[in-house]
Amino acid sequence: MVDFRLNDLGGIELNEFGEETERVIWEQCYPELDRVLSDPKLALRGDRDHDREAKNQIRRAVRHERRRLWENQPESLAKTEAGRRLQKQMGTVGPVADYYIEQRAKRILESEAGEKGKPN
Predict the structure, then answer these.
(1) Which one of 1, 25, 87, 88 is separated from 36 by 20 to 30 angstroms, measured CA to CA?
(2) How does pLDDT run across 74-106, given as a tens digit for each residue?
(3) Total domains present in the chain
(4) 76: in domain
């Protein structure tokens, strides 16, 4: 279950995940970080040195999860040369770069440039 709320400007915001959903997310999406955060020896105790080491362990686990997820992404190149250039510049996946190239091409074709609204 996922609980949403409306903010004061009428936007939808995530309020919270249900207990079961949150557990699945931690176990499936971030197993190393879940292991570190679940360690009872890691609990913050107000001891400056202990708390510093606990925070460092958490930071290391977060870096590990980010690298693990990034490295496991399938290779997906954009369909066009322009899309591949944009993909490289943005550091994004091929379908995202393709989307932006397609949107730009539509705007160019729909513009009043050239004869009868068609670019030369």
Answers:
(1) 1
(2) 678 899 999 999 988 988 888 899 999 999 999
(3) 2
(4) no
Residue 36 lies in a domain: yes
Give the tens place of pLDDT for each residue, 18-49. Answer: 989 999 999 999 999 999 989 888 776 667 77
Q: Report the distance separating Cα 25 and Cα 33, nearest Å.
A: 11
Domain containing 40: what range?
A: 2-71
Using an 8 Å Cβ cutoff, are 8 and 1 in contact? Answer: no
User: 97 in a domain, yes or no?
Assistant: yes
Q: Are 41 and 16 contacting, i.e. CB atoms less than 8 angstroms apart?
A: no
Q: Which two tokens stand for residue 58?
A: 């958490």
- Assess whether 40 and 87 both reside in one domain: no
- pTM attached to this predicted model: 0.51
